[in-house]
Structure formats: structure tokens, C-alpha cells
Amino acid sequence: MMILNLKFSAAMLMSALSSINIAAAAPAQAAEIPTIEIMGNKFFDSVSGDQFFMKGIAYQPSRSLDDLESATDTYETKYIDPLADPQICLRDIPYLKELSVNTIRVYSIDPTKSHDECMQALADAGIYLLLDLAEPDVSICRNKPTWDVNIWNRYKDVVDVMHNYPNVLGFFAGNEVTNDKTNTDASPFVKAAIRDVKNYIKFRGYRQIPVGYSSNDDADTREQLAQYFACGEICADFYGINMYEWCGYSSYGTSGYKERTIEFKDYPLPIFFSEFGCNLVRPRPFTEVGALFGSKMSETWSGGLAYMYFEEENAYGVVKVNDEGEVEKLDDFEFLKGEFTKAKPNKVTKSEFLRELPERKELKCPSSSKNWQSSNHTPPKPDVDKCNCLNKILPCQVLPYENPAEYNNLFDLVCGKVDCSDIAADGKKGVYGKFADCTAEQKLALQISKLYVQSKDSSDTCPIGGKNVYFNSDYKKISKGDKCSKIELDYMSIHSNVTSKNSSAETSGEKATTAVPNSIKVGAGSITQYKNSGCAILFVTIFIASFLL
Q1: Which listed residue (37, 275, 288, 510) is catalytic?
Q2: Residue in 37, 176, 245, 288 annotated catalytic
Q3: Cα separation, 542 vs 530, whole angstroms
Q4: Could you report the per-residue pLDDT of 272-294, keeping only the tens digit for each?
Q5: Is-catalytic flag, 275?
Q6: What is the pLDDT of residues 289-313, one digit of tens each?
Q7: Do residues 396 and 476 make contact, with C-beta atoms less than 8 angstroms apart?
Q8: How far apart are CA 241 and CA 247, in angstroms?
Q9: Which of 154, 222, 316, 456 is the most buried (most CB within 10 A)?
């Protein structure tokens, strides 16, 4: 313990006493909502010590495709952040309370906006938040995954703006990124994201907000996915499953819930339904709620979140918002309200749980098989400084393309002429190129610059034209003392090659050696509107439920 000796002047003392009196006279602040913590495989109220079960709902309004197509430049984001608009959240919180909701899931927020008013109102209502870190255009794409600086910066920005709210229950680092046996190689990228976000929270000294993953319920990969995110040195803090096996008036025994409960009985992480609510029968009776919170399931599962609050084109809502912005309850609302109100799960206190908590056994990572092709070797943390250096040291630079397909076309063209292993990312083999973590523009600029060097063309013209590709006339000016000069390129140093053709740069002491790290896949996968499973090219409202498997 360090003891400080403080000397107060009379004036300082009076000032201190005055401030104390002012503070004492100020109106009392409402007690802060207790944080939710994890012990073993359960959630607990950090103050009362009572076990916490989620009675939740997905909560995110959307822009229609017509709106997005007709007014592309009107909106700051393709999504609506309901926590940045008090008119939305304050209107809806009474309905959430009526539903007996204690947790909402939001899929995308705008980190440039304030969320103070909505988050405080939610806290006053006793409502917690599970928040996805991605947004539709910045997420880990299942078909061509990458853990790059754009996604990393997005994740950090969200953590930075949301960490102070005590009712942030946790962050999702990904949603259904691997959704079948054809894309299990995407999972290492999500696991890397979990690792880096957890380390970032610790590094910044923030409250230890849990970071987890939301999976789908694919029969071929269900077991391996759950195992993968709970094994090894890098683990998720919790695990959600988007579960749509129970439709209409099914039962515990016939729906698949019994089998899933047996499978996850000894799962070491808190596990819950991150979405539920099959809509093959409308209105939805939500009879699965009674089973989920009943004695047969509550020992294993920590509740769940119904999908979703807003009625939209996908027909999963419990309320409809009319053109005047007024809320109209649907029949689904009354059914969910009734089931959540009746749900009384058997709880255990933290002290009781800890007395009987066995030592956690390390879970073995899944072995490679026909249904599971994913390496346990994850990509490195994105190096923002290294990637930004490419903007200085490369002769050819690339501006962002509006259409993601343009990237794939250009990579196909360029990588047929130069070695692109330094930007390749292979989650199956666990091999990641030195620049796999850079942006699509930076990676494309690197490959076009290779073509420029190979052409031995001393003109200020890049070998691939177009309005988005331009020549960087300043690239020769980097000095040895610049930090970017230490980046080495693995294809014969660009600067070495060019300066051999331009002796003036070399003789003036501006020669720089450079080396390029490896790795990229630029992507184009599809995504449901607020289910950030990876690459969002089109913002669609189509929801594909797991019960169709």
C-alpha cells in the first residue's frame, strides 16, 4: 500500500468541505443497475448473487430495401441504431417491460452517436443489452473470411463507446459466421476476434465485459462449433445458439430440445438461445418458453431471446410500428407476454453454485473431419500501423469500391499474374499471409504495385487503370528513419527495384527496404438484415431458420 502525505491549506480545506456539503445536498441518484457476471457455466447478478436467466428479445428496426435503394446518400448507416434515438427506445421500453423482458439483443449500433439516454432508460427498466460488435458492411464474411484492420477498428470503436454502461451484459464477436460444413474455415477468424477484444478490454482497464459467439443450429457442425469456441487457450465467455427447432405447439420430447439439452448438459460456458421463435405457425404461441425455463432445461440453459420485436418483411415481429410511428401489438406479443410472465426458472445462488462447482476440465478441440475443416491456429491481431504504412510505401494505391464484387474481379485478374500468398488467409490450414490483416484496398494496392515493379515501367502510371487506382508519387520519398521503412516486402523490395531505375532516390538517401506480410480474402457472402454473419453486400430481410435443416 502506498501512503500519500497531503498538506492542505485552510482555503483548500474549506473548498473541500464546501464541495462535500454541495454533494450531500444534491438529489440522490438512482442506484446503478448491477452488472451480470459469469461463474462457471452460469450468469449471476453481481450484487444479489442470484442466478440470471435471460428473458429477452431481438431489438432492431430496419430500413427497407426500397428506402436504401432510393435514398442511398440520405442515411449515415444502412441500419437504424435504436439505442441512439430516444424517440424509438423511450417509445418501446414500456412495451418491453410489459413483455417482462430483461435483456435485448441489438445487432448494430453507430459508435459515433451517444447512447446515454437510451441505455439509462433501459437500466432504469432493469433491462440488459447483448450487443453484436459487427455491422452489416463490416463483419467477418463466412465465404471469404478475414480478420482485418477495418473490422478490428469497428469492434474497438463499439467497445470504447459502450463499455461504461453497467447493463451491457456482453458482446457477440460473430453471428452464424460458420453456418454449415462448407465454411468451417471461417471460425478461426471469429476466435481471433474474441481473443483480441478480450485482450483490448483488459488492456484499456475496462470492466471485464464478456465476449461470446452466436451460432446457428446446423446439425452437421453443431457439436464441433460449440466445442471449438470452448477449447484451447482462446475461449468464448458465453455461447448462444439461434434455435428454431420448436414450431407451434411442439413439445420438449418432439422438438429436438430434449436432444440439445442432453448434448449440452456439461458444457463449460453459459449457454442460451440467442434467438428463438419459429414462425411456421402464426400467431406464434411461444410454448417453448415454458420448456426453456422449466426444470428439465433451466439447469443447462440460461434462458433465451425471442426473434424479434419489430414486425417486418420476414414476419417475425411481436409489434408493428405504423406510418405514424405508433406501436400496434400483434397476437404474438400477447402470447410471448403470457409465457415470459409465467416463466419461473429454478435458480441457484452464486454461493451455492460455487460450493459445488467442479474444477473445469479443458475441452479438447474438435478433430478434422469431413464436416469440420478448421485450424486451431488463429490469425494474428490486425496491425493497423503496418497496414497504414502500405499507403505510404506502395507506388500504386486503391480507393474503396462501392460494389464488393469489384474487389473479387480485380484480385482474380492480378493474382493470375503475381504471387498473392502474402495476402491469403486460410483458416483450414491455419496459414495467414503477412498482410492478410490489411484492408481490401491496401491488399489490392500491394498486388497492383507488384505488377508495376515487374513491368519495369518508370512512368507514373499503374498497370491497372480505373478511377479507383492511382499512382502515389510520394512513395519514393520515404526515408530510412521513417517507421514505415522497416516494413519488408516479400517479393523483392518495391523500393529497391524502383530506386534501381531511379538513381536519384537512392543517391539522395531515400532508399528504403520493405517487406510484406501475407494474407487476404475479400468477401462476398450474403447476410440477413440484422444477423451479421459476415459480408453484407445486399441488406436483405430474408431470415433462414435452422429448423429447415
Answers
A1: 275
A2: 176
A3: 10
A4: 999 999 999 999 999 999 999 99
A5: yes
A6: 999 999 999 999 999 999 999 999 9
A7: no
A8: 16
A9: 316
